[in-house]
Every structure is written in structure tokens, then in C-alpha cells.
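Good morning,

Attaching, inline, the C-alpha cells for the sequence recovery test we're adding to the shared suite. The designed sequence is right after.
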């Protein structure tokens, strides 16, 4: 996508006009997500900046392709970073032992690993049948089986459960057969 390359190249060349546009158009959604999920505006700013840096560093090291819109990719990176922040703070609060803070480099490496896992999952999801994609999207959004039956015209909830099981199994096989799986599984 041409627009994606424009944004990626703008990050590499520090094109302030395009980066400001990117910030103006995408930050409000990130801020809303972070605030709705136990954060503050400052947290959203940190997450947004980290995601921009993460994408920029990754693109500088390995020219990768974004299969969705850049905006969706950026938002997903921000969501993943914020969820990791929430999980880290939860571990710090619940652990009685001293918690060693990961340094910024480790944090970036983990964020990159998480992003690559997400990409593998999405690519694999796109490679299964449209029916399975729809079934799993409903399942992953915690849609009740009764609604899945209604939306997809299945005969019963048992049929819907069986279909979810078969689709999850197919997706799992595709992911495990991908050469990237073993590398991304570690850590």
C-alpha cells in the first residue's frame, strides 16, 4: 500500500509534517483506548511514542510490509504495548519479591516479538476459509454461541461449538507449520 510506504519512509526520514499528521489522526483513538483501560493521557502519549519508535526501528532494520492500513498497524502496536504495560504493573503489584525492571532495549525487543506474533496470527487467520474467519472472529469477541448460530445459520449451538473447535484447530495447525513459529514461540 502506497500510503503505508509514505508513513514508513516519513518515520525513517523524520518528516515532521507527515509525522504530525499521523499523530493528529491516530493519537485520539490510542488515547481513548488507554484511558478506557486504566491509563492516563500521559500513558497514551508514552505508548504512542514507543510504538512509533518501535515501528521505525524495525523498518530501519528489516524492510517489512504492512498488510493492513498503517493506521490499523500502529493502533495494534499501541494496544499491544499498553496491554504489556498493564501486565507488567500487575506483576509488580502482586509480587512480593523484588521485581527487576527490564531495560528499554529488552522492552523494545519484547514489543517487536509480540508484534511479529500478532502478524503471524493475522496472516494465518486470513489463510483459512472465510467461514472459519467469521466463526473465529465471533468467538474471539466472546459472542454467545446462540448468536453465532443465528448469524451463521447453524442448526444448533453444538454445531457452532464443533465448528469453532475445527476452525481453531485449523488455525493452530497453520500457525505451527509456519517457519516463523519456532522462532516466535521462544521467550
Amino acid at each position: 500500500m502506497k500510503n503505508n510506504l509514505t508513513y514508513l519512509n516519513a518515520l525513517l526520514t523524520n518528516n515532521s509534517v507527515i509525522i504530525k499528521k499521523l499523530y493528529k489522526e491516530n493519537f485520539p483513538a490510542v488515547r481513548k483506548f488507554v484511558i478506557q483501560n486504566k491509563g492516563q493521557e500521559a500513558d497514551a502519549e508514552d505508548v504512542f511514542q514507543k510504538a512509533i519508535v518501535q515501528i521505525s526501528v524495525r523498518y530501519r532494520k528489516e524492510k517489512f510490509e504492512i498488510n493492513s492500513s498503517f493506521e490499523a498497524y500502529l493502533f495494534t502496536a499501541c494496544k499491544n504495548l499498553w496491554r504489556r504495560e498493564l501486565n507488567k504493573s500487575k506483576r509488580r503489584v502482586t509480587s512480593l519479591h523484588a521485581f527487576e525492571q527490564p531495560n528499554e532495549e529488552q522492552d523494545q525487543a519484547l514489543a517487536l516479538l509480540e508484534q511479529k506474533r500478532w502478524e503471524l496470527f493475522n496472516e494465518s487467520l486470513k489463510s483459512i476459509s472465510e467461514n472459519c474467519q467469521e466463526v473465529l472472529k465471533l468467538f474471539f469477541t466472546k459472542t454467545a454461541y446462540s448468536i453465532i448460530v443465528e448469524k451463521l445459520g447453524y442448526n444448533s449451538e453444538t454445531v457452532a461449538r464443533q465448528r469453532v473447535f475445527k476452525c481453531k484447530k485449523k488455525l493452530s495447525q497453520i500457525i505451527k507449520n509456519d517457519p516463523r513459529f519456532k522462532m516466535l514461540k521462544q521467550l
